[in-house]
Amino acid sequence: MGSIQRNVVYSVTLSLSQVLFPLLVFPYVSRVLGPEGMGSIGFVESFTQYFVMLAALGVPIYGVREIAKVKDDYAVRSKVFSEVISIHFIATLVLSVVYVALFMTIQGLSAYRQLFLVSTGTLYTQVFTIEWLFQGVEQFRGIALRGIVSKFIALVSIFLFVKNESDTVIYYIITLFVSLLSVAINLSYARAFVEIRLLGMELKRHLKPMLYILSFGLVTQVYTVLDAVILGFLRGESEVGYYTVATKLVRVLIMTLTAITMVMVPRMAGYFNDNRINEAKKLLSSSFDYLSLVGLPMVIGLILYAPEIIWVFAGEKFTLAAYSLQIIAVNVLFIGLSNIFGVQILNSGNREKDFLRAALIGMLISLLLNFLLIPRLGYVGASISSVTAELVVLLFLIKFSLKIIRFAPKWRLFFSALLCSLPFIPVYILLHKICVDSLLILICGIIFSTVSYFVLQYYVFRNALLADILKKISEKIRFE
């Protein structure tokens, strides 16, 4: 199996573990800690996340690109690593002082002081997790293994030590302990790739591109989070609940799908840095092929089986969320394509400014549509606004990207994926005629639709990507 395919497998495996972990933990923890405990954790995590983002200064994206550019030069790689992690540490040190001062002095925050004290450690573990280093040198196998092992340890520890409502702090300490364990393993493993070099550092040269990437993250947060806030003010909590459930389900699939394209980023950054445009185009074509093969059937499946998905994962009270899920399902494709044209092209091509411009336009469109549509259509209006904003961002990312590289996707693969997804419709209709249980309909629908889809792709349309993946898997099995 080629290195790209292996990295895809490792990245998707890690993403699936990140999805499965909360699915296993949440039902247990929510019942043990109760609404107050979960509310306290949710509040502290939300508050802390903004400080984590500000302190990171875009390092998770910027670091991958810069390390990938110099991954074959140990000395330069060590210098870049030392500079980037130093900036991250200094920013964290400054912001942690503000962070502590806030929860120690503001009365509304001091009630959660114990949780905030533990969470202060989380700010610093984010500095030394350094996954961006391993992504930059394409060590995805190690990232996946460490991620899965740490989540398994957390899962066992939570079931062993979190027993009643008073264990909220213990739960938070477990998450910090697991993070510290990951940090220890990562720092030990990193010694094979870099060494800290404090002399001769040039920190200033990194600040401008990092601030652009940070600004992009903050702007994106506005138009992906503020819609729920506006919805809550204008229409009430129940509609926020419908919308939030739908968006969370879509984000799970987006996270899994973007794991496929994100493994291309380190190599893409290297190609742009070396001006190897033809190789970059081939890699972009591979990303688009993966997205077409997997992303389009995801969207069709979400639209068709939205009522069953909502019933199984959220319960009968959230039935109306199916309408929202059917609308924002297309964000799976839009955001997947945005990762190709934005992260892979603009970020790898050092065009952070264009990346930010697209996000700012999307934010303005989102705010305008939210205030226009939510008063009339509620959570459906918020869903339409979300899809429109993501589409506008994508179109501008494509426009800016084409100035860097003339990339022409293989649209025939996209249309073949659409045709292979059409049998999902008769399968869905047939299942509804012979069965009434939502869970059974969903399971059977996924199985029959998946089988029919890949059979058609392989035998009718002779999908080269699918054939190549199956060939390499069979060769690996025979070899072992």
Please tell me about this protein's structure:
- The protein has 480 residues and is mostly helical.
- The protein folds into two domains: 1-202, no CATH class; 206-480, no CATH class.
- Helix content is 85%, strand content 0%.
- It has 20 helices and no strands.
- The protein has helices spanning 3-56, 59-69, 74-105, 107-110, 113-128, 131-136, 140-161, 168-190, 204-235, 237-262, 265-273, 277-313, 321-328, 331-347, 352-377, 379-401, 411-421, 424-434, 438-460, 464-479.
- Helix 3 packs antiparallel against helix 5 (113-128) and helix 9 runs antiparallel to helix 16 (379-401).
- The longest helix is centred in the first third of the chain and has 54 residues, at 3-56.
- The chain is globular.
Helix and strand layout, with pairings?
Layout: H1 3-56, H2 59-69, H3 74-105, H4 107-110, H5 113-128, H6 131-136, H7 140-161, H8 168-190, H9 204-235, H10 237-262, H11 265-273, H12 277-313, H13 321-328, H14 331-347, H15 352-377, H16 379-401, H17 411-421, H18 424-434, H19 438-460, H20 464-479
The domain count comes to 2
Low-confidence stretches: none
Instruction: Summarize model confidence as the mean pLDDT.
Output: 82
Largest sheet: none
Element-by-element helix/strand order: HHHHHHHHHHHHHHHHHHHH
> Which structural class should the secondary elements be placed in?
mainly alpha
Intertermini distance: 12 Å
Relative strand content: under 5%
Shape: globular
Q: What's the total count of β strands? A: 0
Helix residue percentage: over 70%
What is the rounded Rg?
A: 23 Å
